[in-house]
Each structure stands twice: as structure tokens, then as C-alpha cells.
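Anyone? Bumping this.
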Amino acid sequence: MMENAWLIPLFPFVSFVVLLVVGKQLKERSAYVGMLLTFISLIYALGVLYERWTAPTYKQAYTWLTIGNVQLTVGFEVNALNALMLVVVSLVSFLVHTYAKGYMHGDERFPVFYAYLGLFTFAMLGLVISPNLLQTYMFWELVGLGSFLLIGFYFYKEEAKAAAKKAFIMTRIGDVGLLIGMILLFLEVGSFEYEAIFAALQNGNISTTIITLSAILIFVGAVGKSGQFPLHTWLPDAMEGPTPVSALIHAATMVAAGVYLVATLFPLYEASETAMMTVAYVGGFTAIFAASIGLVQTDIKRVLAYSTVSQLGYMMLALGSAGYVAGIFHLMTHAFFKALLFLAAGSVIHAVHTQNIEQMGGLWKKMKWTAPLFLIGTLAISGFPLFSGFFSKDEILLAAWTHGHVGLFIVAVIAAFFTAFYMFRLFFLVFAGEARTNVHDVHESPMVMVLPMIVLGVLAVVSGYVQTPWGAFLGEWLTEGTNWHAHAEGPSWIMIVATIVSLCGIALAWLIYGKQAIARDWLSSRFPMTYNVLMNKYYVDEFYGLTVMRATAFISLLFEYIDRFLVEGIARSLAAATRGIGRIGSRLQNGQVQMYGTVTIVALAILVVIFAVTGGYL
Amino acid sequence: MQPYFLSLLIFSPLLGILVLSLISKEQEKAIKWLGVLATLPSLCLSLFAFWQYQNGYDISQLTEKRSWIRFGDFPFLRETDFTVAYELHVDGFALVMIVLTTILATLAALASVSIQKEWKGYFQLFLLLEIGMLGVFAASNLVLFFIFLELTLIPMFFLIGKWGYFEKEKAAYSYLIYNGLGSAVLLIVIAILFARTGTANIAELRHILTDPIAQMQTISPISDDLRYGLFIALLVAFGVKLPIVPLHRWMLRVHVQAPPSVVMLHAGVLLKIGAFGLVRIALGLFPGQFQQFSTWLIVLGVVNLLYGAFLAFRQTDFKMVLAYSSVSHMGIVLIGLGSLNEAGMQGAIFQAVSHGFIAAFLFFFVGVMYERTRTTTLARLGGMAKTMPYASGFILAGAMASLGLPGTSGFISEFMAFVGAFRAEPWLAAIGTLGIIMTAVYLLRAVLRITFGQTTVTNVHDLRGIEWVPAISLLLFIVIIGVYPNVLAMPLQTTIETMMNGLGG
Amino acid sequence: MSVPLSAYLVFALLLFCIGLYGALTKRNTVIVLICIELMLNAVNVNLVAFSKYGVNPGITGQLFSLFTITVAAAEVAVGLAILIALYRNRKTIHIDEVDTMKR
């Protein structure tokens, strides 16, 4: 099966093409096309994973482009990480395909939605089996296109338009970093192949400056895609897209691509202490930064979005602390529980037709399936013991601690506390208590939406058990043939601290929002400044508006003036000068033969003088 | 293949002109169909040649040579001195450009259905323009090159001046004056070279100018200073065509005022004559000078790239956005050429071809849009994704190709040009990458303004009938080059090798 | 004693310049015509001089001057005829007043 792994991305692509062409005729039956084809991908991916469990890495490449004597190739590779990602992506994609059949029901552009989903899935699957940086970059951008199209799916909404544009441009800024880093590496190594790059690293053929520089530039790409600070602002805005899209793209798969990229290039980062530090600190800062914003947001999807940003920061922190396994592990568990949370949130939105959590409440009784599933997701992300997030977060904390980043460790712990708090704040506000607005026809979502959530709910619980303190199956498999830690050994009090912290967060949230023992505005009334800053997301958007966008507008204006007045002015003055000369010339041309004769003679005389002086040659 | 193959390829539109002149002015349908049909023979011939070349046919067999003009009969000169032959020759690069031209000509002819008046004259001039463009790429001596170049000038002048929009006369004169001046400079260069060496054949000139021994035997040796002068003159001459900032103002007017079907050819092919000339003549004849100016070329390229991008960001008319985007994209050609390595050169040529398709594609949709909404002002457009979903999808695809999305030809060319540039001048290239971001910014701003948001113009219909042909085929070409670039890279290998040999490694 | 070639040439040059000056500056058409005659005669002087002192002395130069004289005579005849016709119609022979062709 592995030798035909390239087929996996192709199925969703077929779905894209088919739906683009005949979607209009199929109408809502398009969903079956999409579901069927992603299901085949999923089965295939599972087969590949099963085979890769025992077999060695498989790789194949074909010549794609010849530049001089350099042959660039495309191909595919199935290694442990890729095989795992294939399953995660195709699974979540299939579930979202299923879910969207209910969620998007009745939408005018239903087939288009499925076509875009197919395109995105194709790109994402293509991204994870790429054997070289160039191909990764190409799919990387295509993934961005899919995300852009889906964020802007409700194209008639101004917010969706702005969000789509912002997402594309912000990630593109990162992508340019990636492009530069990639080209620098290529010029040094002479190949885009991961193998060749790692070999050159091992032989010490790359100068340290280039390693650090390219590693950091590539990380800039990851920052853009994974919504890390300072390029994170697009991700919350991207919630303008349909909720299934948020689950698939902006929680489980695409945003994790940055983490995946850093993980894939892990040897490169290992070779540069500076790059590792950068990754760890950016990740750590993002984790706490986004978590603190998440504390006060009132839009259900935005809270989840900031939580995604924060969790991605966690993964980066893990990778930067040499916790290769920890990062991947959290990526996987996060994909499941965050997709679950988004799908459940979508189910809620589907029922109450609002995204403002202040207007929800009391849904526990009305949504028999959604509410418990949301709770599972919340427990998982909060790191409640024995749920998947507990194990993966624990790995990260261990990695940070054992790598000696005490500061980052503390940051991670605080972020974990924040996470537990705001997630349960969300849970209590939405499900507990009484309904704050009189929405009457609240109903549970159809089974086609609930079933995917159930699958994810199960995974959100059990997926943690592949890598526990008692047995590191995942880690051993992932790090086979390398000298990376399959499992970070560390003091066992870390696990206890993590548990206590998450329980404290949950308890505090319960006190404020569940039992309402503490007034809700207790904090905001005491620290209005802090509250405002958080509410306005640290004014990052405003800052960009004032600096980058102003600067761009100013340069444009400057160029406009140059173009209109300087360039055009010179051209005009040349034209005017020509016209002036012409006018003088026409004055000479007065019809008097004598004048003509004079001019002729004078000109002849000048020519004679010139010839006499130069001797006939110029 | 026939010994007359190239002549046949170039002059086959002439048949259309003749037949058209026999038809009554009033028969609109017949004229339009004939106009399209007349572009088909050269299309078929060029595709046939391309296919043969891909299959290993030696393309130099197509070379044609017939004696034509002889100046003076001086006993002390060799028989061949001061003669101009009618000689045609193509290599991989020229063949690619010819294929580009014939494809775009056919598609632009299809897009010409929206022309409102005097179809007969329009198509005659259109076909004449095609002859000129094809000739430029196939000519193997400078005099012939120049004649064909001028042959493009005149029909273009009338096409803009007669069938354009409101300020068409001004645009036409602008076009004529700028390009006329460029041509004049080129003519001076050609005259000096001809007078000094006695030949106008590009290959012979290259031999004379680069081989020190051959240079001693020529009629009047060319000093280094003169070489610099000639090189700069060539840069100016082709810089007007390309265009290089600050010689670009005419091109904006043409883009805005000319009918979209003509702009398809103009942006698609005529601008590329600048790139073609820079490669074939400036680089071919003066590799030494080219090398010394290479850094400046990259600087010019970066300036073009950023200047066009930032200005496109401010425009309020979609056509102006595209016009400045052409300026910006031609910067990438310069960057690629200036980097003087295989990757850069290949990137520059790719960009020339790729931009040809993309610009034609986008301008085709400008025409489609204008026909329905009677406007291209961004502020008055919006929400076209609702009324014209397919057209909007195509426009978005075009914008994506233009901003260099992988899987489209735009990416390959941009990527290679930047690989080249980073090898040559990393810092300049790094500044240039800002242009990649800006391209996304201005294109999305413009395209989303048109397709997303609230619908402003209702009861317009989507693509229909014949309009699908240019839309789909152009997109197909863009994607094919993007997905399998070797289809273009292979024919260019020998050209690029020759260029690199000329540069001494 | 023979007069050197240069003397002839200088004389012809002076004559030519006087003629040229007159032809370019005078407004009376008769004088202009006379000045043209002067220039022609300067040429004649040159022709004759070269026919004796030139690289290939021969009769050709003198022959040519005869042609010139003939042509000049014809030209003057035509010119004067036009002038008379003009004078009859316009009562003037000033050059810059005869400008109907320009209008």
C-alpha cells in the first residue's frame, strides 16, 4: 500500500474536480461524493499506517523541473510522522465532511463548500507526504488557498471578506520567510530533499549562520501558518468561516502544519541553539498571550480560536524544548479534542443561531448529545486527568522542565491554568444555568452531525493512551532510528502540579460562572485597564493598522505622487521642450527662400568646421 | 518539414487579411468567424513545430535564408559584407514565444466578439499585428527584427486609437511616441553595428563581438566605450517595451484605453518583446556589459517590482491595478535576467511566458466584465461571486496565478527568479520578496472588491458560449506549466546553455 | 609669370560669397537674380581655372562653363519674364511681398 500512498491526496482532489464540474446538478448529494472519497482516503491512510508500523520508510521521487544541471523532484514519502499525520488529517476531514452535511444543509452553495473541502483536504494530505521542502512549500500555499476560500465562503459578508483577505496576507508574510529560508538552504545544500539537507547537516556542510538564519526564517513561515505571535491575528478572524471549516482547518489540520513543519525539520533546529530558543520562546509567549485573551472573549468561536493559538504555542514550546514527541503527541490529541470542541460549538450555533456566549446558557438539558461531548472536549483540553490532553500536556511540561527552561515551564503552567479556566467559563456560560435569551426552538442537531462528534469524543478520551508515563508506544515508534527522546524523564511532581493547576482553573470557573459564588465582574471592575487590554486583544490589530498599514498606504501615496508628478512631469516637460523647439523651428520656416538658404549655408558651414576639426571621424 | 515552414507560419494570417478584404463590411458574423479562423493556421503550425521539437526534432533545420538587400559593391569588401538577407531562425526560446503568440492571438480573436464596430478593419489590423509579432520572434537578423517590430507598431496604434475607450487617441499617441522613440534608439544601435561590422545577422554579430580574433578582422573594431553606449541604448530601447520604470507611463494608458482583446495581446506578447530583445540582443551581443550591469538590472527589477506593487495597491480602476501589476511582474523578469545564472534566466523566461498567459487571462475577464457591467471601477463593482460565480472563480484563479500560487505558472517563474537572485544578490533579493507580499495584498484587495461583498450590479449573466474557450484554455496552460514545468523548461535548455556559455560559464 | 591657381579660387570664393550674401539678404528680386548670376559666374571661374590647373587639365571645364552660361541666360530670361508679369499684376518686385503660395 505504501508504494501507492500518493493516491491518498488524490481522492479528495477528484472530489474537488467532480464537484466543481457537476456540483450544480448534484446539489446536496455532493456531500456523498465528498464523504465517499475522503473515506477511501481514510481507509487507505489507515492501511498505510498499519503497514508503516513495521515496514521502513518508503520514498519515491520523479523529476519535476530541470534548472541547469540541478534536477528538482516531486514525490512522496511515508515515514512515521507522515503516516500518523495522514490518518489524523483524513480522519478529521472525513468526520467534518460528514458533519457538514447536516450543518450546511440548505445552503445555496452547498456543492461549492464540498468542493473547497476537497481541495483543502487534497492540499493538506499532499503537504504531509511531501518528501522535500519545495513540495511542502507548494502544498503549504495551496492549503492556504483552501483556507482562504473557506473563510471567505460567506463572501457577501464584509467581515468574511476582510477575514479571508487577512488570513491570506498574514500567512503569506510568513510564507515569504519560509521561501527565503528554503532558498537559502537550497543554495547551501543544492537540494530541497529533506534527506539531503539532513545529510549535509550531519556532515557539517552548512555554515552555522545559514543554519540559524534559515531555521528561523522557516520558523517565520510556521509562525504565520500556526498563528503564533506576532502573526496570530488572522486566526481568530478566520472564525468568520463556517464552523466545520474552523474545526477542520483552523483547529485540527492546517494550523498544525507549522508545528508539523518544524517537527519535520527537527534536525535543522537541533543544529542551532538560537533557533531552538526562538521556537521555544515564541511558542511559550504565544501560549500565555493567547490564553490570556481567551479569558475575556464572548464569542464562542473566538474563545476556541484563541485557545487554538495558545495550544499551538504549547506545541512550539515543546518542539523548542527538544520535545519532539511531546509536540507531535499534543498535535494529535489537540486535533481530536479541538475538532470535537469546534464541531460541538457548531452544533450549539446551529441550535441557537448566535455565537455570543452571553446569550446562551442552560443548554445542558436541551442538547443531550452535544453537551456531554463538549464537556469531554473541555476536560481534555483542560488537562483533566486521564483524558488525552492530560497526557500530552504533561509531556510538554516535562520537556520544558528537563530542557532547563524553568521560566518557560512556569509560563506553560500558568497557561494551563488559564486554559482550564476559560474553557470551563465557556462551558458553564453555554450549558449551565438558565437560558439568558428566550430561544425556544432549541433542538439537538441531526445524527449526521452528532456521530462525528461521538467518534471524536471517543478519540479525545483514548488517544492519550498511546503515550503515557507508563508506556511510550508513540514516542518509541516516532523516534525509531534517531537519538531523540521517546519520552522525557522528569520528576513525577510535575504531573501532580499539572493536575492541581487544571483543577484549580476548573474550580475557579465553577465558582464564578457555575455556582456564581464570586461576582462575574469581580476582576474586570478591579482592573478595568487590564480587562480592556485583554478585551481588545492587546491592541495588536490596532497597532498593525497604525504602523504597517499606514506605512504601506504612505509608500503607495508617495509612489503615486512620484508617478503622477515626477515621472509624468519629466515626460511632459520633455514633450513641452520638443514642442518649444518645434515652435522655434516653425518660426524659421516662414516660406522665405532666403531664410532657408541662410539656414542651409550656416548648417553647411558648421558641418565643414566639424569635419575640419575632427578629420572626418567622430 | 518544409523549407518554407517558418515563412508560412509567420505570413499565414496574410491569407485572412486578403479574404477579409473581399467581404462586405456589413457581414458581422462572417467577419468575426473569419478573423478567428485566420489565426488558426499559424496556431496549428506552431503547435505542430512545438510538438515535433518536444519529440527531438532538430529545430535548426527550419532556418531559412534568402538574399535580400545588398548595400554598395565595393571591391575591397567581402561578398557577404553589407548584405541583409531575409533569414528566419528559431530556437527553443523563440519557439516558445511563437507558440505563446499564436495561442494568445487565437484566444484574443475569440475575445474580440465584443468589438462593436468596423469588424473588418479591426480583424485586418489584428492579423497584421500577429504577423509582426511572429516575425519579431523568428527574425534572425537585426534589420528584419526591426522591420517586424515596426510592423507591430502601426496596427497597434490604430487598434488602440480607433477601438479603444474614451481617451483612446491620447493612449494611441502615447504608445506611438514612446515606442517610436524606443525603436529609433534601437535603429541607431542597429545602424552602428551594421556599419561597423558589415552584418546584421545576430549569430554572426555575436561571433564578431565576443570572439577577440573575429573582432580584429572586422571592418571597424568596436571600442569598449562604444559597447557600453550601445548596451545602454539597447536597455533603453527594450526598457520602453518591457517597460522599465520610469519608461512605463505609456503602457498604463494602453492597458486602460485599448479594447481588452487587444490588451490581451499587448500585455501577453508585446511586452515580452522587451524581454525577448533583452535576452536575444542585449545579452546575446554584449554579454560582458550585461555582466557588469547585472547588479543594476536586479536593482531596476526590484524597483519595478515594488513600485508597481505599491502603486497597484492604490488604484481605483481594475484595469489600472492590472497595468501596474504588469509593471511589477516585469520586474521579476529583470531580477531573473540580472542574476546571471541558470535559475534566474529560466525564471525570467518563464515569467515572460507565464505573465503572457496570466495577463491575457485577466484581461479577458476585464472584457467580460466590462461588457456586462459597463464599468471597471472597483468602487462600483462588488459581489460578482453571486451573479457570475464561474467568472468570479476564474478571476480569482487568475489573481492567484498572478500572485504566484504554487500549481500555477506564476509560482514557478517567481520561485526560479528568486532562487537566481538569492544566489547573485541575497540582500536585493530579500528586499524584492517584499514584492511577493505586496502582490498578494493588491491583488486580493482588487479581486475581492469585485467578487466578494454586496452585489452591486444585478441581472448580468455568467460566462456563456464561446467565452468558455479562452477562459478554460488559458487557465489550463497556466496550470499545466505550474504543475509540470518541465514542459517549458526542456525546450529552453539549449537557449539557456547558449546564454550561459556566452557569459563565460 | 603665371597667376597661381589659388588666386583664381580666392577670387571665385569672394565672388561667390558676395553673390550668396546678396541672394540671401536683398529683397529686390532683380538684385537677387543678379546675385545668383554672380554665384554662377564664380562657379564658371572655378571651372575654367581647374580646366587649366586641375589634376587632369582638359577642355571639359571650359565646356561646362559654356553650359552654365547658357543655362544662366535661360534662367534670367525666364526669371525676368516672371518678374515683369509679376510687376504688371502686383506693382511690386519685393520678395517678401510675394507670398500668395503660403496662404
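Late reply, but here is one note on the structure posted above: The beta strands of chain B are 64-70, 83-88.
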